[in-house]
Amino acid sequence: DAGVIQSPRHEVTEMGQEVTLRCKPISGHDYLFWYRQTMMRGLELLIYFNNNVPIDDSGMPEDRFSAKMPNASFSTLKIQPSEPRDSAVYFCASSLLLIEAFFGQGTRLTVV
Amino acid sequence: AQSVTQLDSQVPVFEEAPVELRCNYSSSVSVYLFWYVQYPNQGLQLLLKYLSGSTLVKGINGFEAEFNKSQTSFHLRKPSVHISDTAEYFCAVSDTGNEKLTFGTGTRLTIIP
């Protein structure tokens, strides 16, 4: 398996624009997590899914953020409208029964 | 609620010297414990995990960690470090039966030649 695949690797956008980050989890994994990493706040769990169903979205900063998992092989994290303070590295991870979480390479988002 | 404390934000160590990265956790229930490593511009990679059984856990790249329930600690050790160990190391905890992983703030390990 190629591991968790995230796209794009880098994204630069202007404030107010919509941003969509994409994630393909490892085949067969039943959990998917979205994390955000910043210097100030470290790694924060935004939301996670189990069998495509959102379980806990308490980490989503505000209504500008939304995440979907339409099927077992794809998830998106959307920010609309984006703001400079959203600049961070966003990681997607997947796991089977939480025995081990496998992380993607991350998407570095810069909002100018 | 669970939490993780990594007291050392940066640890410089000479090459071939031993190293210990400290991790303490708090939780009201039994836990699973993890150490992850993040190399520059990369995602996180699992070094080792404690789920149950022996309290001494061996991982990849010569690392090991010991679960100490009475001290609520899970310190990471390596007897002899290499330049390639330069990275950021994250301790993480999850309550058994709860899927959420909580990460510490990370420790940046710098190896001095």
Overview of the structural elements:
- The complex is a heterodimer of chains A (112) and B (113).
- By secondary structure, chain A is mainly β.
- Chain A has strands spanning 5-7, 10-13, 19-24, 31-38, 42-50, 53-56, 65-71, 74-79, 88-95, 101-103, 107-111.
- In chain A, the strands form 2 sheets. In chain A, strands 2, 4, 5, 6, 9, 10 and 11 form a 7-stranded mixed beta sheet that branches. A 4-stranded antiparallel beta sheet of chain A has the order 1-3-8-7, with no helix packed on it.
- In chain B, the strands form 3 sheets. In chain B, strands 2, 5, 6, 10, 11 and 12 form a 6-stranded mixed beta sheet that branches. In chain B, strands 3-9-8-7 form a 4-stranded antiparallel beta sheet, with no helix packed on it. A two-stranded antiparallel ribbon of chain B has the order 1-4.
- With 113 residues, chain B is an all-beta fold.
- Helix content of chain B is 0%, strand content 53%.
- Classes of the chains: A mainly beta (112), B mainly beta (113).
- Chain A binds chain B through residues 4, 31, 33, 42-43, 45, 48, 50, 55-56, 91, 93, 98-106, and chain B through 32, 34, 36, 42-46, 49, 51, 90, 94, 99-106.
Strands, helices and their partners?
The complex is a heterodimer of chains A (112) and B (113).
Chain A: E1 5-7, E2 10-13, E3 19-24, E4 31-38, E5 42-50, E6 53-56, E7 65-71, E8 74-79, E9 88-95, E10 101-103, E11 107-111
Parallel strand pairs in A: 2-11
Antiparallel strand pairs in A: 1-3, 3-8, 4-5, 4-9, 5-6, 7-8, 9-10, 9-11
Chain B: E1 3-5, E2 10-14, E3 19-21, E4 24-26, E5 31-38, E6 44-50, E7 56-58, E8 64-68, E9 73-78, E10 87-95, E11 102-103, E12 107-112
Parallel strand pairs in B: 2-12
Antiparallel strand pairs in B: 1-4, 3-9, 5-6, 5-10, 7-8, 8-9, 10-11, 10-12
